[in-house]
């Protein structure tokens, strides 16, 4: 059963998302489509983004090779305090109120390569990456580093359109104090062939909103991602986001919702397994560690004062990662 038929068979509607064409010269049209999407669901597609299909497919192929290794090999690259490396099944619990165990997925974190002798290595999320050996996975590191660099460029282009949609200068987020030394995180994800059962608290990924600025997501053709536009309603209404070959699904994070004073939406989403294995590639763009996230001047007025106090990016991320990831001591105890 292909992705479209599987979604139809699930009896859950499919969300109609706008497509932002990064090759288009009609900037006002792109801004208009993006603004509408950000006001509606905070989700949209980005097409013609400049990353070649060959590279996209190579990243998926290399991801499958890694997750196909024996667990003992993957655990040698267990994530560290910097959130670099392998995250096993159930390591993350994104919906503590409803999940009976962690997310039924495994992942791998890759960030900007920061050597041990760089002063920035002291910062959270900065440091050397963990890499599988070249003998076991040839070209793996090279593929991921190329994709990481190109995805960062795409995310920055999207950020410029977002700035225009918020009535800011296009280069607002490019400022040295915002994206001068950003925290760009690539995360490979593999969902086991599990059938999710929300009534029993079993999910591929529990319901959550993303932590930071914005997310680029590439998926295979297996459906699973669902979004909820009415998170405060009972019952909540969920819609599938259809995979789109070669495109990124883009969504806004909580940090941008704070920046925009809730004008732009960081939407609740989850992954529902249908018994098929599923692979996805997420790229998270976060601002500098010391970036102060406070209400943008174009998003406040006397009638609409700031809803949130200012917060440092690194403080916000530390809180969210700490709330959702298992303590590393859990794994150390298992080794004893």
Automatic annotation (TrEMBL):
Fe2OG dioxygenase domain: which residues? 181-287
> Would the keyword Iron be found if you checked this record's keyword annotation?
yes
This protein's UniProt keywords: Iron, Metal-binding, Oxidoreductase
Query: Cross-referenced Gene3D superfamilies, in alphabetical order?
Result: B-lactam Antibiotic, Isopenicillin N Synthase, Chain
What InterPro entries does the database record attribute to this sequence?
DIOX_N, IPNS-like_FE2OG_OXY, IPNS-like_sf, Oxoglu/Fe-dep_dioxygenase_dom
Keyword Oxidoreductase tagged: yes
The GO terms describing molecular function are:
dioxygenase activity; metal ion binding
Q: Name one Pfam family in it.
A: 2OG-FeII_Oxy
**Which PROSITE patterns does the annotation name?**
FE2OG_OXY (PS51471)
Domain of life, per UniProt, equals Eukaryota
Check the record and name the PANTHER family matching this protein.
2-OXOGLUTARATE (2OG) AND FE(II)-DEPENDENT OXYGENASE SUPERFAMILY PROTEIN (PTHR10209:SF867), OXIDOREDUCTASE, 2OG-FE II OXYGENASE FAMILY PROTEIN (PTHR10209)
Per the record, the similarity remark reads: Belongs to the iron/ascorbate-dependent oxidoreductase family.
Protein name stated in the entry: Fe2OG dioxygenase domain-containing protein
Which organism is this protein's natural source? Answer: Eucalyptus globulus
